[in-house]
Amino acid sequence: MKKSDFYYELPEELIAQTPAEPRDSSRLMKIDRQSGGITHDRFYNLCNYLNKGDLLVLNDSKVFPARIYGIKQETGVPVEFLLLKHLELDLWEVIVRPGRRLKKGARVDFSPELSAEVTEVKDDGNRIVKFSYDGVFFDILDRIGQMPLPPYIKEKLKDKDRYNTVYCREEGSAAAPTAGLHFTENVFSSLKEKGVDTAFVTLHVGLGTFRPVKEDNILDHKMHVEHYSVPQETADKIKQCKANGGRVISVGTTSCRTLESAADDSGNLTAGSADTGIFIYPGYKFKVIDGLITNFHLPESTLIMLVSAFLGREKTLAAYQTAIQEKYRFFSFGDSMIIL
Fold first, then answer.
1. How far apart are CA 256 and CA 180, in angstroms?
2. HSE-up (13 A, CA, CB side) for residue 57
């Protein structure tokens, strides 16, 4: 299977630069998984496509302001850190710019209460750094940091909260689980009124989610690894939903990857925490999810491959062409689809 099998032409003007206001006013494309039939709507009408007894599973990870700017102590040269992954205690894996200036032992000041020392230079150029700080680490980041927006978003984000879901709570993502950005309290109220339940998992999204597939044969692609956790309550809710004949609907590819990673071949979910590098592409047999809510993804990305695995490649590309014709907004701040 070639990466070119998942290519499509996207006019640049359809890449959403700012989030929809209000959140739930974004467009919603409903796709019939069997026929590929398409209905156009708005996200605030999501409950019209769900049934009493269905269960939505959402990723409650929170994006933190992971991009910080500082000064190298020895030279006064400006440097940029992008925090990728919390390793242990005060150790983090980071991307640094300019990288050649920060060798092992280099020290950087970011503010009067935050500094860091490079403890290791990895083979891929990333650094392991140890932070020193006075106060609460994430509070300091919230004051001095910037949200790590994807490279295709050129507009400056006016409100940091708009790159997070309204239900986020577990700090640790360097990128948003964007399928959840459309939800509002009004949407949740309408779902509850209809008898649609919700459950949460956590997968801390890394910047690897934006890493392009470079190999022509997608089977040669090395998938990035991310940390996830599934609460016992969520595992119990999914088991009960299935037993009652309801549908388990994943909100986003991150929730999907979490559920499919935590399940055995029979679809039984194990609560707990682990790392996953699961790569879902056409031919994959889904064990847990019955539906998927997701945004429109980059050409030749692992995300459009996952959607193609669930919907079928031809139906997926046909839906994308319809979205382009109808001038849907694409990518992180773009519109949404629900596949059932």
1. 13
2. 32
- pLDDT at 173 (0 to 100): 92
Contact assessment for residue 204 and residue 173, using Cβ atoms and an 8 Å cutoff: yes
Return the CATH number at 87.
Answer: 2.40.10.240
Q: What sign does the CA torsion over 311, 291, 185, 303 have?
A: negative
For the entire predicted model, the pTM comes to 0.93
What are the start-end ranges of the H helices in 103-222?
137-144, 185-194
3 state DSSP class of 124 = coil
Of the residues 121, 144, 167, which one is the last residue of a structural domain? 144
pLDDT given at position 209 = 75
Q: Across all residues in the chain, what is the average pLDDT?
A: 96
Q: What's the one-letter identity of residue 126?
A: N
pLDDT band at 285, cuts 50/70/90?
A: very high
Structure tokens at 324: 């382009």
Q: Report residue 224's pLDDT band, with 50, 70 and 90 as the boundaries.
A: confident
In the numeric block, the tokens 């400006």 are attached to 78
> Residue 182: which CATH number?
3.40.1780.10
Which letter does DSSP use for residue 220 in this model? G
Chosen domain end from 144, 175, 200: 144
Q: Are the C-beta atoms of residues 228 and 261 closer than 8 Å to each other?
A: yes
SS3 (DSSP) at 6: helix
The tally of domains found in the chain comes to: 2
- pLDDT, one tens digit per residue, over 192-213 is 999 999 999 999 998 777 778 9
CA atoms within 13 Å, Cβ hemisphere of 175: 21
DSSP string computed for 262-314: HB-TT--B--EEEEE-----TT---SS-SEEEEE---TT-HHHHHHHHHH-HH
Identify the CA nearest to 230 among candidates 289, 195, 272: 272
**CA max distance for the chain:** 65
Domain that holds residue 132: 67-144
In this structure, the answer to whether residues 54 and 79 fall within a common structural domain is no
